[in-house]
């Protein structure tokens, strides 16, 4: 059984589900319409009130999660926590409240998870489809066929800032709608190059805002009763006729959700006009279901992150044989260093596979180029935090350690760094079969032991080990080398 928590800009939502054949059966849901994006002040910081409300919700979610025996939990945060200037200060409090790590995912990763959720509930595995998701702080557009994603883009436009910019006073005028729609179209004017009109057989809308529009249009027989462009323009006319947000009272939407729908409507009309979309279908699936499916895939060793690493290796011309050799050596050394947990085992392996990615740019400072690539590349399945960990390890693979000193305060990460540095050295010296001749321990100091025969056979390796001694001692971690 798995759980997915979506810390969205409009609402915090939770799904608990368990796999049943090829389906994910949802057994519990929860939602709190916090409108976190509205809690950003003029400086881009979350207010104390917004953070307190979020923490209250997370504590209630923690109580729900505690009622189930879960095999995996994924808590993801989207646009508002991506852009909030004080997110790093808020995050530890939020993680303590819910009891699980929180991943602030990129817009592209958000789009991929949305598509995974949508494709999971659609029957046709060959259908070429476009998915549009309008959130509180961003809008994701994804093109794919069946379960395969071909293009994904996150646009920095969402219901909250759109509503605040054009309908802050609650007035629903033709001029406000026209300005809001034109502003939305400007955001999507490059979209046709990424998603050529007509390149799909169906279009789906996955967000709660789009589902709310579908409910209002259907319940009140607006236009043709479907989410056609004509029906949405008819809904716009109904809103204008109401005159003000608080005067719109049609069945299908709660009064407090009207302003969210208004912002979303202008975005949806804008993207439909720019991409030539005449009609879309609202579907009750998206980010949370995608996160549940991703957890299920990981449990069955079908991790999208492994595929992303292989694709990145190919993109930057990494020699797979050298990368695999480094990863194998590092894994053996890391095991001998006896980390307190397995938290960094996979990060170390992935870092080894990409540690030479920077050589495609320049051999001089290749480790710096590789670190930049890893931290900034679009790697499906990875969070920004995971990429930052790998970038740190790769940056510290050689040379001075001052540049990664702060990160090495984590003992297990420091052991992973040592394992990568020694593995890279041994791989370059082609000493794959000689790893057993090197013993290493690390607590408050590093102790390396080599046999006398090993030392005689590999005198140049000893030169590198002595240089390594200076690098660690420079950051106040003593390293001793002894011969047995």
UniProtKB/TrEMBL annotation:
UniProt entry keywords in alphabetical sequence: Hydrolase
Protein name per UniProt: Ppx/GppA family phosphatase
SUPFAM superfamilies: Actin-like ATPase domain (SSF53067), HD-domain/PDEase-like (SSF109604)
Domain Ppx/GppA phosphatase C-terminal, residue spans: 305-469
Gene3D superfamilies linked: 3.30.420.40, Exopolyphosphatase. Domain 2, Hypothetical protein af1432
UniProt keyword Hydrolase present: yes
Residues in Ppx/GppA phosphatase N-terminal domain copies: 22-294
PANTHER family membership: EXOPOLYPHOSPHATASE, RETROGRADE REGULATION PROTEIN 2
CDD domains with a match to the protein in the record: ASKHA_NBD_EcPPX-GppA-like
Coiled coil: none
């Amino acid at each position: 059984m798995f759980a997915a928590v979506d810390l969205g800009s409009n609402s915090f939502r939770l799904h608990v589900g368990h796999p049943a054949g090829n389906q994910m059966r949802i057994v519990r849901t929860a939602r709190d319409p916090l409108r976190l994006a509205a809690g950003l002040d003029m400086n881009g910081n979350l207010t104390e009130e917004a953070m307190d409300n979020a923490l209250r919700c997370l504590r209630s979610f923690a109580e729900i999660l505690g009622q189930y025996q879960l095999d995996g939990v994924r808590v993801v945060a989207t646009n508002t926590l991506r852009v909030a200037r004080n997110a790093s200060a808020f995050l530890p409090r939020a993680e303590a409240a819910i009891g699980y790590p929180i991943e602030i995912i990129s817009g592209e990763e958000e789009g991929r998870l949305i598509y995974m959720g949508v494709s999971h509930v659609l029957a046709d595995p060959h259908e070429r489809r476009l998915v549009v998701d309008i959130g509180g702080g961003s809008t994701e557009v994804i093109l794919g066929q069946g379960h395969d994603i071909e293009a994904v883009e996150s646009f920095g436009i969402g219901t909250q800032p759109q509503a605040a910019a054009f309908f802050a006073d609650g007035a629903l005028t033709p001029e406000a709608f026209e300005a809001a729609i034109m502003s939305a179209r400007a955001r999507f004017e490059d979209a046709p190059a990424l998603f050529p009109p007509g390149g799909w057989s169906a279009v789906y809308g996955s967000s709660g805002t789009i589902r709310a529009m579908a409910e209002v249009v259907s319940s009140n027989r607006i236009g043709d009763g479907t989410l056609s462009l004509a029906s949405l323009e008819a809904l716009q006319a109904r809103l204008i006729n109401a005159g003000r947000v608080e005067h719109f009272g049609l069945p299908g939407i709660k009064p407090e959700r009207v302003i969210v729908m208004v912002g979303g409507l202008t975005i949806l009309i804008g993207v439909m006009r720019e991409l030539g979309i005449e009609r879309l279908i609202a579907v009750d699936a998206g980010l949370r279901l995608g996160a549940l499916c991703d957890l299920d895939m990981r449990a069955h060793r079908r991790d999208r992150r492994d595929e992303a690493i292989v694709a990145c290796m190919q993109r930057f011309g990494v020699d797979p044989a050298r990368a695999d050799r480094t990863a194998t050596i590092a894994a053996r050394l890391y095991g001998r260093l006896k980390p307190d947990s397995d938290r960094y085992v996979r990060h170390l392996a992935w870092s080894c596979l990409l540690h030479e990615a920077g050589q495609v740019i320049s051999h001089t400072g290749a480790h710096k180029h590789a670190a930049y690539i890893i931290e900034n590349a679009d790697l499906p399945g990875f969070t920004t935090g995971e990429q930052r960990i790998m970038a740190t390890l790769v940056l510290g693979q050689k040379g001075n350690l001052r540049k990664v000193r702060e990160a090495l305060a984590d003992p297990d990460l420091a052991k992973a760094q040592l394992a990568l540095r020694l593995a890279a050295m041994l791989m370059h010296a082609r000493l794959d079969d000689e790893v057993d001749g090197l013993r290493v321990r690390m607590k408050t100091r590093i102790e390396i032991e080599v046999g006398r025969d090993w030392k005689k056979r590999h005198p140049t390796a000893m030169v590198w080990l002595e240089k390594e001694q200076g690098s660690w001692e420079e950051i106040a971690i003593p390293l001793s080398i002894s011969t047995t």
